[in-house]
Model the fold of this input.
Amino acid sequence: MRVERFVSERLEPALYRRRAPLEVTAWVAPGEPVPFAEASAKSFAPFAAGQSWGRPWGTTWFRLTGPAPAGWGGAGTRLEVVVDLGYSHVQPGFQAEATAYRPDGTIVKGLHPRNRYLPLAEVSSGGGVDVLLEASSNPDVSGDGVFATPTKLGDLATAGDAPLYRFTAADVAELDVTVWELLQDVWTLRGLLPELPEQSSRRAEVLRALDDAVDAVDPSDVAGTAEAGRRALAHVLAQPASASAHRVVAVGHAHIDSAWLWPTRETERKCARTFSNVLALMDEDPDLVFACSSAQQYAWVRDGHPELFARIKQRVAEGRFVPVGGMWVESDTNMPGGEALARQFVAGKRFFAEEFGVEPLEVWLPDSFGYTAAMPQIARAAGARYFLTQKPSWNEVNRMPHHTFTWEGIDGSRVFTHFPPADTYNSEVSGAELALAERQFAEKGRATTSLLPFGYGDGGGGPTREMLAAAARTRSLEGSPAVEIAAPGEFFRRAQAEYADPPVWSGEMYLEFHRGTYTSQARTKRGNRRSEHLLREAELWATAAAVQHGTAYPYEDLERIWHTVLLQQFHDILPGSSIAWVHREAEARYAEVARELTALVEGSLRELAGEGTTPVTFNASPFARDGVPALGAAPAAVGADATASAEDGGFVLANDRVRVVVDADGLLASVRDLAADREVLAPGARGGLLQLHRDTPTQWDAWDVDEHYRRHTTDLVDAESVELMDGSAERVAVRVVRAFGDSRVEQVISLAAGSASVDLEFDVDWHERQKLLKLAFPLDVHADRAASEIQFGHVMRATHTNTSWDAARFETCAHRWVHVGEPGWGVAVANDSTYGHDTGRTTREDGGTTTSVRLSLLRAPLFPDPDADQGEHRLRTSLVVGAGIPDAVREGYRLNLPLREVAGAGPVEPLFAVEGDGVVVEAVKLAEDRSGDVVVRLYEAHGSRARAAVRPSFGVASVVETDLLERPDAAPRALRNADGGVARLDLRPFQLVTLRFARA
Ligand SMILES: [Zn+2]
Done:
């Protein structure tokens, strides 16, 4: 306590020897942010310290001018401009920040709650100080760190105009360097002290030294006696770390969420502020190494601040500003589709290669909400070898057993993985964090080294000089882990070298938290799913048009659209955990993406179909359908055997494969597989049942669905109307309308001729709050495990809750389908835009097992968007009867890739014919290098070995197997031979293959 008072009452007030206020003028931008050139030309009005400023999301430009005081800046001092915008105690990044510019428009650095200074030399010339601040009055949407209070602050349209801040000070100030150094000495030792064993000599020594330091500093002359205080601490700071001390590789970092409690336009500014801070700090301290992940964030700086970007480039070349991760953004990894997750790496790595000539070897995802079992293969195929995260430390129930290990994906691919054991990506290099790293490090005794990312994220400004001081003091300090600042690559090389045979984690790294992120903001999710499939169509047909007709390939448009889609897979956008503004903008961007892609697709189809009046149906899916070949076009041949009839107040829909009874409540009373002569639904249960649950998470509203949601269920069995729709022999349908709460749903249950899929389509006008809407299928299936589609394959998850790991997985993410089955017979439930699912099992009185598959259709959390998910939604699902996993795979594509009919000259030959069970084409495109080579990405989808032939319909000069970046694979893994331009492949289960065909 004595030391604490000494710090707050003596040292901190003595940091600056003297201060002189600058003259402040201001100009308030009336709307959204404007560039420097425009703002600096405005007329600035007088402004006084103490005045309030800053409506929510506003920008105020302050100009600070004044003389550099004569006679200041003697030995042992540093002259600075110190600005207090009126910061609050909430965490940096959730409040006001500013960018400081010189009058010529170059950026000096950012100003933040815990980084308030500008070096005077950088903002003054012969004429004295002259600096402009672009100050953002960002509101604290977090509600003082509570993250649960509904607020209208999250959208410009609803945030109001009341000023949020009171401008406190803008001074020239004289920093006392000795007092500052003493403060850093004391901070490090105060942090170390409580971590030392209570009875240890070292602890007593440190405590006594601190006591002595307080004695040595004269309260009436802190500046004059600070040196004596430092001398009192010198001997304890000089004691070296023990030989067995844990080793920490500290990496400067700033986790800047690409959108979250602010829109992307603010992230662009957060990046400029933080990166300029980093560059300024690098000028001061040669030790600083800074790791920065997202290509998108660099691209923003490149486009908005070329001068800053040029300085970053220089530091990248020196190896101090280190691009890591290799992805376009730190994306979610549960929901992006296979090709999209691959493109995160393709786009990111291309950017890093083209702009910096570097290739990151580590995947850097400290904060995403769980990690797909497809990641190891995708990462390896993109040339990555290492993987970093710390998010699993947020698990509610089970603790991941290792911090350094080998992670193995569904296909057997492996990446060397590390979780920083300090459980943070925003470290301050405190004694507590360092001690926690050593205490928790699960590899102790086998390995000695862990990684520590340090720096304030989200617009806090990144690493500070105080953190660097702490790192320098703990380089070798008795009782503390030994800290060294280095790049992540250096950490991984060392960690791998010292840990020859690390343990293995196989499969997904499910996050036992944030399970609502598979469902929140359903329109954002729908936008993602539709965009992914439209991109597939656009690339496929543009490639076909280029190859078959020499049509120009829309490289620029596709690249730009991909960048938008990839950005919106960021780990707070696609998961639905951002403010209203972000999701409103995301939906608008998806609408624009859909408009542009549809135009591209239609243009290509016209080209391919040619002149004529024959109806030609295009099939972009990897499976033939209605007589139309996969990836080609032909007149469709649809069967005509679907019938509908009334029965017992309900209706019967039937074809030659399935007989469906829709009862008077509009529920599926029976679904009979005619071929297997077997009922699909569990006895006594009805399918297609909407269930409404209370959804009041304990914390983190948009993020979490808590286990207790299941305790309150309302079955929506009452129907306003159930009626047969006008159908045809090709498709018969029943329309069901239900009203519940303030909401309404119109549901169409339909069956097509020749199809084993019962389609359920929902138009929901949703006005519930804190409710979760599930769609249930209780199935008469005995299944211990459910298969869920993920990127390039599927994962098996238990339907029971034997272990705490199984029990914690009560809500899971699946892509286009979930499958449950017995040997030889099963059922698939597919969807066109839903990700959240749960599967469970109960044993009935009759001894049979009911396996229930439920989809999470909609939520309505109140934070951070108080109106999340309100309004209209369209969702499609299907129940596939008698399905194996191959049928589930096919159904996933059917539901997500509609056939397109145009009038034309006749059939269009597919660019490729693929032979081989389970081998699925995921993408057809022209090569990124714009050489005109055709690239095909495919994978084995069943989880079996496969032999395949990929037969192009165009002249081929050569075929090579490549990595995701389309670089020839030094040791092709799947390509057996390519005689005559036909690629013959041997694939292992779930293997992902990229082939590159050079055209003859
Ligand atoms: Zn984050």
